[in-house]
Design goal:
single chain; mainly alpha; two-stranded antiparallel sheet; 10 helices; globular
Amino acid sequence: MSSVWHNIITAQPAPPVNVVIATGVVALLLIGWRPVWRHTRQVVTIAHEGAHGLVATLVGRRLTGIRLHSDTSGLTVSRGRPAGPGMVAVLLAGYPGPALFGLAAAFVLSRGYAVALLWALLAALALLLIQIRNLFGLWSVLAFGAIVFAVSWWGSEQVQSAFAHLLTWFLLLAAPRAVFELQHSRRRGGGRGSDADQLSRLTNVPALLWIGTFGLVTLACLALGVWWSGLI
């Protein structure tokens, strides 16, 4: 355990640029290849619902549970005022959440703390697990956590760094796609209970403007993450 703790608090050397680029390409494949995306998208859902839960707690609402479903949808339930700034903040957090988590991860990686990032992710997943209220959600978080733990515990320094970069790229690149899918679903008549539509009902601001806001935030996070990676 002492060696693990030493690795957590010690900055690791930056990986070669070709490794950073390669992990970005792999992340693009995981997002762009539809048969794989059907499964990897669950990571985005975990981050999305986790963002709802985190903000609900921060604004003083009582978090009562999170559900993750096999169709990659999710639901976070909290108790408190049904309207007002707190509820708006909770709804606003979902779609930008994965991108903001990815941006935070990119910042940590830019300082060289890949191992610390993986263990922080494990701690966050453990806290999330306490709030999961359905079997598929439990399986999803446990499976993802098992992969992160395996890499954190048994992976070499190079493997840990590459995996941390892969996760970071995945969150940064997947977040804009999730926003695009939301708008695509709404254009086809679906998604009318989405975060954007609920925000529209609470604020009288058109849902399309909220979706545009989601998109701008996720793209801004991606651009800043690329800059921090040293690729531009």
